[in-house]
Records
---
Amino acid sequence: MTVKVFQCFGQEKHAQSFPAEPVPKCEVRLFEKSTVEKAATGPRKKHRGFRLAVMTGKMTKNLRGIDQDILPTTPIQFSHLRGDNGHPALLLKIDDGNLRSSMVFTFDEPDQRARLHALLTGGVIGREETVYGEVPIQSFAIEEPGGLAPRLAGLEWQSVRIINEDAFDIQNTKTVLSEHLRVIMDFKTGTLTDRFNIGPGELKIRLDLHSTNELKILRQPQHDMTIMATQANNRQISLPRNSLRFWGQSPERKQLVLIIIFQHFETKNGSVPIYKKWDAATTRVQLVQKEKTVQLLAFFENFNHGDCMGFTLKSTDTFESSNKSGKFSLRIVDAKFAMPKPRGEGNAALDSAFVNLDMPDYPGEHDDITVVFDTETERDAFAKSLPAPVKAASRMGSVRRDKSKLLDI
């Protein structure tokens, strides 16, 4: 890209080697830096910031250049300015830990400024990419387990876009081990770009029991996030070794089929001769679907035996409905599932509260699960999302009832 005028100023050595006055017709190149990490699943490419190169043009007697690293560890300060005769300009203040640079780019057209800004935020759509969703977002925060108050919560968030590799169908989109998946969140005075190059089992989620539009994501520490903000917000932004995020749009490319919040969750443990009853005050149950795979997720609150569970429903499963005793219930006969993970300590306690969609826990339990609804309408809506038709309840009890665990949701 050739800019109309470029100027670099400051006390750094490379700024001193560049002409202090505005230089016309400079050549600007932006390179994305990356590293390749070895993993059991194969090489994984990770974003590590940018390298910005500026070279004086043909109109300058002495050839000079600037080579500036832009690291993802610190925010990029920017301002939209107006140059001579009203030409669009962009001010960048970059701190790579060793050098601080202030650069002003003046462009012939507003589209040139917009493109450079989009390249820095990862907002440019590649040839093999597409935008899978763009929705308003009310809030977003990053929190370290056991750390200080959530970061970034005070910003005025506006919208979120999900970009990934193009596919014929959203259900076929690659989420795990994708080098294209990124989430771009705009706030009033800046942009945050979160790159989701995740391995199998790394991305875990939790749904809030009281707010149906809140999503929590548990992430491993990462080093490939980008924040661009105006100078007014620079003091408010800092990047932690983020692990826990609160936001309102799922990158898991699963279809959210049904949301139901129950006031009662009951488990009868049959591992001993006498059934032991487990109760949870509030439970949220949700069905998610990708292609032909349907999963049931359950999230608990103040449940002594765990915080969540998830398992796969198949077209070969048997589903039975009943109105017995005025209760509108649906039973999954001989369901295959894993019991909720017991809480651990530290990070283990946090991990047990989240479910993973691409690698569900091994279904070591086999027994009936009963879902009880407040109304018949809710039950019928739930039944429509199941992978197999629902039958009338059998008058015979489960053939596994004598040695099983019975879950009443």
---
Amino acid sequence: MMKLSEYERWMRQAERTLKSALRDLDGGDYIRGLVDGGELEPFVKRLVDYFDGDVTIILFGSRARGDFNRTSDYDLVVISKKLGGNPLQRTRPLYELNEEFLDVDIIAYTLWEFLKALENLSPSALDAMKDGIVLHDNGFYGMAKKKFEEMKKKGLRRERYWVMRA
């Protein structure tokens, strides 16, 4: 007989697998549901307007992978050349656009900072490239994806954490 903790682990894994499979099968309805008419749509639109469209916004983490639960937050990477100032303070005006008070975690990068974050094996930047869902793109995503693919060819792997194997 299975222990309860083993059963719970099995159920959680089954739920993650099912959510991931449904996301893959739905033809993008999951993503459209988040943004087009979903709870993220007004916030994403305000972010895009704030940067006059010159921004790349990537959803990553459990919401992007499909293994979220009802208490999961929305992890967003926001990349724009219009960002400046202290990296720790630059997200304040972005959080102020969150009029719905969604549970959102924002990491904001300039274009150069994001590319450096990839090189420095930043988990959030690498996870955004591996599992992320692009909610808005000003054209930067293609450049970042190319760099990410080059790094994978050179030995980048996610094990328990991101490593570069020669």
---
Amino acid sequence: MVVSDLDHYPQETVGEMEARVPKRQAEFDRILAAIADTKAALQQDIRVVSMGLGLLLAEHHKWANRVKEVESGLEEIEPSQMDLKRQVGKLVDRLQTLELSAEDAEGRNYQNNVRVVGLLEGSEQDDMVAYLEK
């Protein structure tokens, strides 16, 4: 509203408006003070949050480096672990073969049978002595 526009209002209305100006000015001052206080509080909160984020970022970098170290260690271990797995598989197969041989030897010992290593089972046909004399 421009000052020249006030001429159109009745004098009592202009007077009422002038009387309200200090009251409104005080209200605006309180609002501006509240805004300034809120701004200061928000700036402080932003500083606190920024510091917290800095700490979190440092912690994140620390853990990221630790994860890289662990991954590197795993990469070094994996080939030897695969070798060990193959060796264990071979040893299990060998153990099964030896267990079968031991069972066969125990069975033959129990029956007083002799096993001639290197001869196929049944190659002697009916007469072992004649087969061995050949």
